[in-house]
Amino acid sequence: MTQKKAVSLISGGLDSLLATKVIQEQGIHVEGINFFTGFCVEGHTHAIRKKDKQKQKRNNALWVAEQLNIKLHIVDIVEEYKSIVMNPKHGYGAHLNPCLDCKIFMVKKAHEWIKENNFDFIITGEVIGQRPKSQRKETMPVISGKSGAGDLLLRPLCAKNLPATRPELENWVDREKLYDFSGRSRKPQMSLAEQFELEDYAQPAGGCCFLTDENYASKLSDLWKFRGNREYELDDIILLKIGRHIRPKPNFKVIVSREEGETRFLEGYKKQFIYLHSISHKGPLTLIDGDEISDEDLLLAAQITARFSQGRTADQVTVEIIDKKQQSKEVTVKPCHPNDILNDWYL
Amino acid sequence: MTGIYNMSTHQLDTQRLLCPLPVIRVQDKIKELNNGDLLEVVCTDPGTMNDIPAWCRINEHLLKEKKEQNHQYLFLIEVVR
Ligand code: SF4
Questions:
Q1: ipTM tops 0.95
Q2: Cross-chain residue pair A57–B21, CB shorter than 8 Å
Q3: Which of A23, A112, A117, B65 is the most buried (most CB within 10 A)?
Q4: Interface contact A238, partner B, CB < 8 A
């Protein structure tokens, strides 16, 4: 029999690592595929913020691939993924995470990939009952069916709890050597990791993306609400991860950098936004995201900028405002008192 | 981008992109190149200092140089087919 080939959906977490290892142990050639949605929790803010410089900045999917000694194909799905986030047929999880639609979409992309690259089947690290919305016994056939992968989708960690798939029926893999994990407990995974002598693996706390994060989801909801539609660009969703977001009025919000790394990052957006920075004192860079910005709005944005500068207790702070045509003007303002920035304004 | 190593090499500017986008751009660019071609890459995400070398190791391309210079991260990769 010629060596069979599988592609494994690698998230960077333990489950996909184990699922891949289990199949490799059966002599299958495995390569990894990882999808970049724009919402992935991969060091973005860690990479930017100076205070997080010491944190591990490795990309977990790449790291997992290296541990497994497999190739990893990282696929940019930012554009196609928008329709999943804006309009999920199966709805959202606890926040704005469209997990079931997301899984179907990723398996569908993997199925297209195996057809283009002459691979035989797909594996995922899914475990029945692990996630309340997307990893239930009832959702497993939904994912296989709606993605088009059908019985070419094998879940090695819980295969014994599911009907046999083609790789099992055709003896490409030995079903007896697959697993029957179920439920939320991580113990079976930990003990399998121990068996494989894996010690250092990522344990992402809040799932694989920012859409599961309450704070992030509320900033995204705010963006959609005040724009009047759910369209977004990659820059929009990246900016939601950076700085303080303060919406003093419906027509605009300000994004205020919290430290030097963020200031440097926001500087890259100077041509797209009106921006402000204090010139009499050291301070943040502020972007204004909004429409029909009046002089009064600019003054308020300047006062907020001054509030987060080293002149926060000064009587007056001079702030430079630069518009999108790069025309600049200076204003001298009294910094906002902390109580003037209402709690509701913070997103 | 001005040539940082040699004007005859291919160049890729991923400044302002955050991981894993620089890696994706490198991956996609290298698909177009031939064995022995050189690719110089400039990035601003410090995460690339780990990710680009890891990507090269996994895909068996040769990372000939990596360095940090004024908040830029520079790489020279030789394509191995
Ligand atoms: S947490 Fe995010 S990436 Fe993971 S399945 Fe849900 S929506 Fe998709």
A1: no
A2: no
A3: A23
A4: yes
